[in-house]
Structures
1.
Amino acid sequence: MELFYVLLIYTTIGASCFYLIMCADPNKKGPAAFLNRLFYVRLPKLFQKLAPRFVIDLVGKGFNYICYTNHPLIQIMYLAIVIGGFILYILKGFGEHFPNKRLSDIHYYFAFLMTGLSLGIYYKVCSVSPGIITKENIRYYQKKYNRFDGYLYVDNNTCKTCKIVKPARSKHCRICNVCVAKFDHHCVWVKQCIGEKNYKWFLAFILSHCLLCFYATYIGFWVFYGRMVDDKLLEVNYYIAGKQQPVKGSIFIALQYLFHKYTAFFFVVIICAVMGVTLSIFFVYHCSMIAEGVTTNERIKKSEIRHALESEVKDIDHKIQREGVTVEEKDSLIEQKKELYKEFDKVRLYFQSGFRRNLKEISKL
Ligand SMILES: [Zn+2]
Ligand SMILES: [Zn+2]
């Protein structure tokens, strides 16, 4: 049973790392971008080369089903994790370690309140429409989102499925099969798109779960710290299997002892700490996009356009440095480069108006 919990802890840490690497920009430099390219481009390509045909088909079908169809599996998994984890926490944490001289009994009620609030916000983000564009409201959205930069958004672009002229900042989601205003991304955790109308609930969802995880970690920390001090776990000697002499206590051995004795509660606290860190990084990532005034979809598109422009600039630089280039050719290439830098500015300046103003606008929607 302990091995099962240890494996689950490692799986959660691994899954959290994968999730965060997914958010990194593959077109940039640095370790995060390198890992993104490694896990999402190079390794899948290697897998396709080496694996047998039927395995590739099976994995492909499973991946498509999980990521590109509107199924409730992830929602069920989310509820199982949150409600199951909460029950375990109440039974093994509050049940076995309360009343506690370091923590007030009020935490017992507070834990119910915070979990209830987090589940309520989850219900909201799942049920509030992201801002679906229909023939009835198309005029409203076209008036509201009418800045076309010619790069990310082109004027008079018709959605082939919805048969509507798409307003700027909108996108057709092929999973939900609708056009969404100020499209951010399709979220499998909530089984719908995140767009203009439910983005604030999505932010509240990340923040509330982040706070819930850190709160659970805080309670867990004081409970185990109390056990360590009250039971004098750092001062006693331990008899370890395979060793004849007793070993003097250390933090590492004391933590192992606590994990062995209170496995389920220790497990939930570790998972909460890992998830708290993951969610806070994800929350900061979204705050950085609010400051930049872009959605997740726009950040990805912007990065791709900038990467393409950068490649063109590099090509021009190579041509300039080549031997035998005439003065006229050089001047023409420099002019081309200047034009490209102007395009850079267009991509960079779109939608920027500051964190506070952007946040205020999001909260009003
Ligand atoms: Zn559409
Ligand atoms: Zn969608």
2.
Amino acid sequence: MFTVTTRHHHAPQRSTPHAPFRSLVSAVVGLLLCGLVISGCTRSQAIVETPAADANEGTVTQPVASSEPVVTAPATVPASDTPTPQPTATAAPTATPLPTTQPLSATVTLAQPHLAQGQTGVIRVAANLPCAVTGHLADRTLRFVPAGEGQHMALVGIHALASAETLPLSVEVTSDDGQSLSLATAVEVVEGDYGEEVIHFDAETSQLLDPAISEPENVLMSEVWETFSPEIRWTDAFQWPVEGVFTSLFGTRRSYDGRISSYHAGLDIDGETGDPVKVAADGVVVLAEPLQVRGNVVVIDHGAGVLTSYFHLDTFDVAEGQAVKAGDVIGTMGATGLVTGSHLHWELHVGGIATSPIEWTEAAPMP
Ligand SMILES: [Zn+2]
């Protein structure tokens, strides 16, 4: 027995220029069946600052956040570098003597002008020499993967309850011949457009909200969602695991009997027990087991820190370690775990952060 009341509100897509380098996620989120991935952080190291005027609040300091934040930086060549001959030199005969070490140069680009709560950010670094790339968004470590000739890409999930603020983005590029450079820019996080709902469970079901039951499960899931394998396995936009009506959207702010406030970390798709559930993209099964709150769960690793999860399954037909292809049936829809009826709860994680799956069905970031 349950009731759901939904109030959709249109939060303004405001940007918040104050407190530029506060934590990415300052909110403390109550635990919830749909996952709790909280990235608390504090980083005080400002990297790029330019003065900006705010009509309402006087002059503030605001990191750069253009519609296409691109930063280039010259390499610093260690003075002690021993020049090595460039066998492919085809220099113009009138040129001054060429440096025998090609200077490293690189750019960092954010695919989106800003990132909304619940969105997946795509950060690309292009360099002119073979190199390794590392980076941070505020205090979160970015994990770059090769993305074509001279390119690296990192995906970053923005928490659905992330503070609207501007975060420093720093990237370190180290070429194979020992040169290094640092790139710095900023990423503006804005509020998403999410509704609110209050859910009431009956007493028996509510027992599953007991932290003694839910916490160990949350810990397990958090570890699974931190899985990182560098190979990108998806080849196209993600497929819908089932066709059906959405009964609760990702990011919806929730409270259960007034006791727990959090947000809906997945997308609920309506259907009948026994309906086939398909995997959204190529990947490897990293979890397939029955849990108390989430019911029968399958989690697929698609590479580069991207995982999809399928909750409340009636049955599942895959095992951990198994490779799957987009469209493969991995189980059937059900009503196992803490649910009020048969549906699929579908989650998508990026770097351990639950993000909106819908944008991945429209387009997936490609290398
Ligand atoms: Zn759900």
